[in-house]
């Protein structure tokens, strides 16, 4: 990595493992400066080498005034353990949130979590396991993993391998990773961001989760983007990020 790059790859402890992640501070952040900055845990999508941490996203979030930590998840990039697609690897995102909270230049009351695609599984579980989390953003997020199994034949073999079976065989493993079954337990405000033409994670995932959150009396907002898919053109991406980071920053 270029020495001038503001991103640092770090190794941190998560349960019994040393795992990898990427840390980035906004320009001008120094431990000796009294100002406290908001922070963001960015939960990547995919698994293993598919959907790796997007370093350009880390830079974009930090450039907008957030201290960012993006876990690679256990078993990836030289980290110990095995990526479980939102199982025990959720400790990696919880540990990342606690690490951010304890940095001297971070406002410990404004540590939020954003999950993209599969990362939404890690993100919602982190918000439940760490109830002090400020806000939760689920972007193009999986909310019902059994639906993903039905909708994505290309992922079925991987899901059966990691979760030890199909949804009808191990329903508890799929429900554990599905926010729609845990909406009442999400303690912080939630924002759902989704393109209506997303074919990788259907818009129905956000619709179902919004319905579940409302039924549970939990605070929820959403930003829908008509005609856009899972990934966005650069100019649209910038506007979308500006909007949801502004939502995080609002009181």
Low-confidence stretches: none
Overall number of domains: 1
Q: What proportion strand? A: 15-25%
Q: Which structural class best describes the helix and strand composition?
A: alpha/beta
Strand arrangement within the widest β-sheet reads 1-2-4-3-5-6-7-8
General description of the model:
There is one protein chain. The radius of gyration is 17 Å and the shape is globular. The model has no long low-confidence stretch (mean pLDDT 95). The chain has a single domain, classed as Rossmann fold, CATH 3.40.50.1820. Strands 1-2-4-3-5-6-7-8 form an 8-stranded mixed beta sheet, sandwiched between helices. With 251 residues, the protein is an alpha/beta fold. The chain has 8 helices and 8 strands; from the N terminus they run E-E-E-H-E-H-E-H-E-H-H-H-E-H-E-H. The relative contact order is 0.13.
Topology:
Blueprint: E1 7-14, E2 17-24, E3 37-43, H1 55-63, E4 67-71, H2 90-101, E5 106-116, H3 119-129, E6 136-139, H4 145-151, H5 156-163, H6 171-176, E7 190-195, H7 204-215, E8 220-225, H8 234-249
Parallel strand pairs: 3-4, 3-5, 5-6, 6-7, 7-8
Antiparallel strand pairs: 1-2, 2-4
Short account of what is shown:
The protein has 251 residues and is α/β, with parallel strands linked by helices. It contains 8 helices and 8 strands; from the N terminus they run E-E-E-H-E-H-E-H-E-H-H-H-E-H-E-H. Helix 7 (204-215) links the parallel strand 7 (190-195) and strand 8.
């Amino acid at each position: 990595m270029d020495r001038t790059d503001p991103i640092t790859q770090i190794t941190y402890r998560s349960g019994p493992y040393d795992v990898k992640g990427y840390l980035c501070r906004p320009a001008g952040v120094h431990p000796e400066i009294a100002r406290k900055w908001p922070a963001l845990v960015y939960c990547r999508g995919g698994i293993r080498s598919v959907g790796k941490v997007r370093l350009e996203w880390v830079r974009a979030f930090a450039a907008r005034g957030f201290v960012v930590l993006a876990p690679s998840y256990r078993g990836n990039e030289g980290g110990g353990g095995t990526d479980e697609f939102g199982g025990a690897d959720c400790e990696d995102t919880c540990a990342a949130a606690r690490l951010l909270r304890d940095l001297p230049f971070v406002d410990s009351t404004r540590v939020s979590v954003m999950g993209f695609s599969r990362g939404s599984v890690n993100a919602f579980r982190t918000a439940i396991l760490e109830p002090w989390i400020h806000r939760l953003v689920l972007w193009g997020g999986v909310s019902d993993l059994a639906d993903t199994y039905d909708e994505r034949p290309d992922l079925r073999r991987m899901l059966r391998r990691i979760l030890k079976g199909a949804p009808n065989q191990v329903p508890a493993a799929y429900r554990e990773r599905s926010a729609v079954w845990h909406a009442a337990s999400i303690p912080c405000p939630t924002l759902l961001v989704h393109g209506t033409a997303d074919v990788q994670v259907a818009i129905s995932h956000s619709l179902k989760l919004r319905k579940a959150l409302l039924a549970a009396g939990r605070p929820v907002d959403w930003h829908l983007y008509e005609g856009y898919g899972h990934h966005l053109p650069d100019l649209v991406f910038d506007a979308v990020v500006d909007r949801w980071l502004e939502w995080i920053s609002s009181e």
